Each structure stands twice: as structure tokens, then as C-alpha cells.
């Protein structure tokens, strides 16, 4: 019989799929790595498992322990799932600007969610960093993974994401396009791909960071943008700036237009950071030849963005355009 012993065995080994329509006019092969096919729905399952395993090995997390992390997004889901299977309590601290649906997902896995006010300074004891730090000191056996600085995060990508891409492309990939949030994905995957291809006749794999226009990685101040999970207003410990060869800034409008096109033209319902990375990939690919192979990491799926990127009214309210049909298109009077 073929089955996984637990859901944790289903983390990783995600497939690559070729883009066929949005790549019109491009000679290079562009492949997308579908991380939404991880059991928790995103690439963050990988780091959650690694960070928890490391903490068990080092003794920072003991049976009956509690995982505390300030996160509302994909890392929370990964940690909630891993914690639930391994018998740890999980507490997530989220600012009140985070939508109720995201908190409900965490609660569905049995996590406890603490909500903190957004309108306080980051160093205030009421901020979500402040509250999570206090919980870690006050709860017996509590452990905070801290995805921004935990070396287990990039290491998980060095050990799994990078080798999967290299093996599935049989060492033929020439470029990898990776979005950066905490930096763990690009640092670990990029380091592996550069190292393994260092002595290749055709030269090492080029690593391209996809970054929301305005974020610090592409020279911005961290000014607000809408695309979620990527870009920063500070430099996290897990981002190694020597890994990317190029950083491509992408605007929200470009990211969202591509995210919607991927669903309509390629049948791929992906999150906004995936659309952003595809925009950067196509920019790079347009100057490449038919022997070039570009791999783009798509960190999560589109289900979590139905009320935003895939909602025409939300898009128009934020000043983005949509490709809504007018009634005239259907009655042929246009
Ligand atoms: N896309 C999404 C949707 C994410 O949640 C994250 C994680 N913050 C990323 C991309 C970036 O991954 P990393 O933190 O490893 O840079």
C-alpha cells in the first residue's frame, strides 16, 4: 500500500510546471515550482518542520512545550500543523489589521491566537513583537522559532528546495527567480544552486531576487505596498545579500495583473508573490535563448487572496485596473 505515515512526510517534493501562454514570444523554458501543493498550502511548511526538529535536537523544545511566534501567515499554518502532529501547543501573535479568516485557519489547527493593536510602536510592550517576547518568558517550556533569524529556515531550503530544483531540471536550469520576505528561501535555495553549479561549463545558476517596488532589497525605504509576504522595511538576519546576482523591483500593479493572468491563462491559482516572481522571470527570460531554463518559485496558492487580488471591486478601490468584461462584449455591440 502506498501512503504517508503522517502529513509531515508530504512536505516538499513539489512539482515543476511549464508556463505556456504568459510566456508568448519567449524562447527560454520557464518552469514554476508549485509550493501550494505542500500540505499546509505553502513553502513555509518546510521551514516550520526544520525549525521544530532543530529545537527538539537542541533541547529548546521539550515534550509538552509551547511554540510561540509572531506571525499570521503561512509560517503560522506550517508551525500549527507541525506542532499539532508533534504534540506541542502553538500560540500565534497577530496584529489586529490581519483578517479574521487568517486567524481562523490557525485556530482550525488547534492554535491559540493573541491579537495585538497595530497602532503602537514596534518597540512598545503591546506590539506583536513585545507581546510574543513576554509570552516566551512567562510560559514554561515556551520556544520562539523566529523565522527572520533562525538558521533552520535557510538550511531547510538548502537541504530540500535547492536539490529538488536541481534534480528535477537535471542540472539544466540557468536561472532561478525567488521572492524575498524573511530571505530564508532565496538564501538557502540560492546558495545550494550556486554551489552545485559552480564548476559547470555553462557557468553557475544565476539567482534573481524578485522584490516589491519600495522594499529595502531593491533600494527602497520599505514604503507600503500591497503584495503580501515579501519585501521588508529592515534587513533580516536570514537574507544574505551576496546570494542574488540581480534584484528586480516589481510594482503591485504588475504583480496583481500577472497573478490574475496565471489563473485565467495557465490554470494556476497562485498568491501575489508568485505573480510578482513571474513578472521578474519574464523580464529576465525575454533576453534568453531556447537552451535557457528559468525556474520560478511560487510560494503559495491564490485561495487566501480571493477577497483582494481576485476581487474586481477591491482591485478598483485600490486604484488597480481589472479586465472586467462589459455587457457590450457579450451582445456584440462594442
Ligand atoms: N511569498 C509568500 C506568500 C510568503 O508568505 C513568504 C514568506 N514570508 C514569501 C513569499 C517569502 O519567503 P521568505 O520569507 O523565505 O523570503
Automatic annotation (TrEMBL):
Cofactor(s) recorded in Swiss-Prot or TrEMBL: pyridoxal 5'-phosphate
Keywords: Lyase, Pyridoxal phosphate
Keyword Hydrolase (UniProt): no
Lipid metabolism in keyword set: no
GO molecular function, one term: cystathionine beta-synthase activity
Domain Tryptophan synthase beta chain-like PALP, chain residue ranges per copy: 8-300
EC number(s) on file: 4.2.1.22
Top EC class, one word: lyase
Segments forming a coiled coil: none
Protein name from the UniProt record: Cystathionine beta-synthase
Residue range from the parent sequence: 1 to 334 of 454
